[in-house]
Amino acid sequence: MMPQVSALDINIAGLNRRLSDVIDTVRNLIAHHSEGLNRFIENFERELANGTVNVDDYCNNAKDLMRDEIQNLNNLAQVEGKGQVLKSTLLTLMEVLRRYGLLKPGEVEELEAELENVNDVNELLTAINGAYGMLASLLHRVACEQGDTNVRYSLVLLAESLINFSLGVSLSAIAYFLASLAVAHGRNNIATVLIKKIGDDLEQMVNFACGVVKAAKSLEERGIYLSGEDTLIARYGNNY
């Protein structure tokens, strides 16, 4: 009998191509926010590889980026052709969820058909945020199964990035994503500093996230299932 693998197929002993695949997938989702943000991330990864990253500069530049460009889906909703922009983002997310087994091909086709008649911005934003949340939940669960510390930390950070994008907290979302890249490059020291810049603690954050996952699994064994809202409240409090 073939061993069972996780939905993301990353039961890995260390950092390898599979983790890079997941990071690239999240990068592609984030690229929908703006070209400027995509270039910002590419520059960060290039400097990580060269060992020339200045964390303070990146934090300051990220703040400028948030102020000067369209950085979250709520802002995207204000642009011309907003419905098509949001539908494109949602279709991309749906394809990712299908690829990772959270949606069946038939379900994707049904959702695509339903989208043809949906033009309400709030409805589209709700669906997009829900899709980000589904992927983040999966990443949290897969992350906490990993024995390799770097893989676990990197995936939890990716999940936190997606959650913050879904909540419209773009600056934190970028910080978490850059920290995930730093861990993947073996630069945990940079990741730690980045997370401190937004008032969080890397180790405590990962331990808490995996504690929530463990509690959720324990409850599920007794037939009690937490909603996405329950887990967000556990992580961020009632004002998330």
Briefly say what this structure is.
The chain has 240 residues and is an all-alpha fold.
Outline type: globular
Taken together, the total number of domains comes to: 1
Distance between the termini: 44 Å
Mean of all residue-level pLDDT scores: 76
**Content-based structural category:** mainly alpha
Output the number of helix runs: 12
Helix-strand topology string? HHHHHHHHHHHH
Largest sheet: none
CA-based gyration radius: 18 Å
Assess the beta-strand content as a share of residues.
under 5%
| Helicity, as a percent range | over 70%
Number of strands: 0
Low-confidence stretches: 1-16
Describe this structure in words.
The protein has one domain (20-236). It is 71% helix and 0% strand. The chain contains 12 helices and no strands. Helix 3 (55-68) packs antiparallel against helix 9 and helix 8 packs antiparallel against helix 9 (170-184). The chain is globular, with a radius of gyration of 18 Å.
Question: What would the keywords be for this entry?
Answer:
globular, 0% strand, 240 residues
Chain-wise SSE layout:
Elements: H1 17-30, H2 35-50, H3 55-68, H4 73-76, H5 82-99, H6 105-115, H7 121-143, H8 149-166, H9 170-184, H10 188-197, H11 202-220, H12 228-236
Helix pairs in contact: 1-8, 1-9, 3-9, 5-6, 5-7, 7-8, 8-9, 8-11, 9-10
